[in-house]
Amino acid sequence: DPVWVVIPAAGRGSRFGGDIPKQYLEVAGRPLIAHALEVLLSHPRVAGAVVALAADDTRWPNWESLWGKPVLRCHGGSERADSVLAALQALPAGVADTALVLVHDAARPNLRLGDIDRLIAAADAHADGAILAAPVRDTLKRADAQGDIAATEPREGLWRALTPQAFRRGALAAALERARADGVVVTDEAMAMERTGLRPRLVEGREDNIKVTTPADLALVEFLLGKASQ
Ligand code: CTP
Ligand code: MG
């Protein structure tokens, strides 16, 4: 069955700073969002994408298709979850409630086809969906109010959530709507699903699938994408 892609790209990049929203910064000759869209739409299971843009966005290059597949757009909202929900509502009418949707950050350009393959396979097999994630590698410290170490937390069983995250369209929309109605800001899609009692599967993904949050991250993806294109 065809899979659709949703790209929330309506953020302001406040932690990154600067004049250009980070999803439009150019690396290896293309904006970050273009890297993400290219690889996702090149996957044979993917039928098309919806991109959620800020209402005052002036930089979207007006792509209407990529790899011969439609790229639709909609207005995002004030929180990431609002942008994802708007994009789900902008999917073509023919997309089934049970169709898989891959939600992927616009600012996460170094995604590889192998990770998309394994994520889709896990989500096909698991009713509650699946997400790419990486095990925590560092030792975790809890701080007290002065910034001194209060405790060392066990890291066993802890994962960092990455994207894409893959869920059935109807179940994800219902979970995001419920979080909104409850006044809870969810920081990823899986969190909305978990709140409704579902248990998405963790799929170990590549650690170099990093999100550009600060300028230091940009230097890293410059290195990674430069290497990949050689
Ligand atoms: N995003 C969105 N709509 C929002 C907020 C975020 O579509 N209201 C998108 C961002 O454009 C980005 C992804 O969600 O592609 C991940 O969010 P994040 O890394 O937090 O990006 P920003 O919100 O832009 O950055 P910051 O939090 O530093 O302002
Ligand atoms: Mg943000």
UniProtKB/TrEMBL annotation:
<keyword id="KW-0548">Nucleotidyltransferase</keyword>
<dbReference type="InterPro" id="IPR001228">
    <property type="entry name" value="IspD"/>
</dbReference>
<protein>
    <recommendedName>
        <fullName>2-C-methyl-D-erythritol 4-phosphate cytidylyltransferase</fullName>
        <ecNumber>2.7.7.60</ecNumber>
    </recommendedName>
</protein>
<keyword id="KW-0414">Isoprene biosynthesis</keyword>
<dbReference type="GO" id="GO:0050518">
    <property type="term" value="F:2-C-methyl-D-erythritol 4-phosphate cytidylyltransferase activity"/>
</dbReference>
<feature type="site" description="Positions MEP for the nucleophilic attack">
    <location>
        <position position="155"/>
    </location>
</feature>
<dbReference type="InterPro" id="IPR018294">
    <property type="entry name" value="ISPD_synthase_CS"/>
</dbReference>
<comment type="pathway">
    <text>Isoprenoid biosynthesis; isopentenyl diphosphate biosynthesis via DXP pathway; isopentenyl diphosphate from 1-deoxy-D-xylulose 5-phosphate: step 2/6.</text>
</comment>
<dbReference type="Pfam" id="PF01128">
    <property type="entry name" value="IspD"/>
</dbReference>
<keyword id="KW-0808">Transferase</keyword>
<dbReference type="InterPro" id="IPR029044">
    <property type="entry name" value="Nucleotide-diphossugar_trans"/>
</dbReference>
<feature type="site" description="Transition state stabilizer">
    <location>
        <position position="22"/>
    </location>
</feature>
<feature type="site" description="Transition state stabilizer">
    <location>
        <position position="15"/>
    </location>
</feature>
<comment type="similarity">
    <text>Belongs to the IspD/TarI cytidylyltransferase family. IspD subfamily.</text>
</comment>
<feature type="site" description="Positions MEP for the nucleophilic attack">
    <location>
        <position position="211"/>
    </location>
</feature>
<dbReference type="InterPro" id="IPR034683">
    <property type="entry name" value="IspD/TarI"/>
</dbReference>
<comment type="function">
    <text>Catalyzes the formation of 4-diphosphocytidyl-2-C-methyl-D-erythritol from CTP and 2-C-methyl-D-erythritol 4-phosphate (MEP).</text>
</comment>
<dbReference type="InterPro" id="IPR050088">
    <property type="entry name" value="IspD/TarI_cytidylyltransf_bact"/>
</dbReference>
